Each structure stands twice: as C-alpha cells, then as structure tokens.
Amino acid sequence: MTQIFEERLAIPYRIILMPEYDAWTATIPDLPGCMAVGESPEEALQLIQDAKQGWITASMMRNLPIPEPSK
Question: What's the pTM value of the predicted model, to 2 decimals?
Fold first, then answer.
C-alpha cells in the first residue's frame, strides 16, 4: 500500500489559492473538501500538501476512489 500511496501523493493536482480576509485559502477542486488556510500564500500552499496527504490516506483506508486530476 505504501508504493500506491506514494504514487497517488505525487499526482500533480491543480491548487487554487485565494485571499480570504486576513488569511489565504488553498483548495484542490478535484479532491472535494481538501482545503487549507494559512496566514500567507506560502503557508497555505505548504498546509495544502498536508491536507492532500490526509485526504488520500482517508480515501484509501475507506477503499474510496481517488480521482485523477482534471484537465
């Protein structure tokens, strides 16, 4: 499972970064609910990687499909 996990984690998903009041929100539209909030764009982009890892882990543990990136 580790190799499959690493392969899925390496998939380059599109990230949307948006300013929100005093913070920045990063989302991965292809992974519903996968989002992170940081005080700076750099922090949000770093945190979205953790969120992506958690999203993929949870999906694999539940045997749910992991979508391919949209074009």
Answer: 0.88
| Neighbouring-strand partners of residue 17 | 26
Instruction: Write down the pLDDT at residue 9.
Output: 81
CATH architecture, domain defined by 2-61: 2-Layer Sandwich (3.30)
Cα→Cα distances 26→18, 37, 45, 53, 60, Å: 7, 6, 6, 14, 22
- Tens of pLDDT, residue by residue over 24-42, are 999 999 999 999 999 999 9
* Domain boundaries of the chain, sorted by first residue: 2-61
Measured CA to CA, the distance from residue 36 to residue 53 in angstroms comes to 12
Least Cα distance to 44 among 59, 65, 22, 64 occurs for 22
- Three-state DSSP state, 63: coil
Report, as an integer, the average pLDDT of 3-25: 90
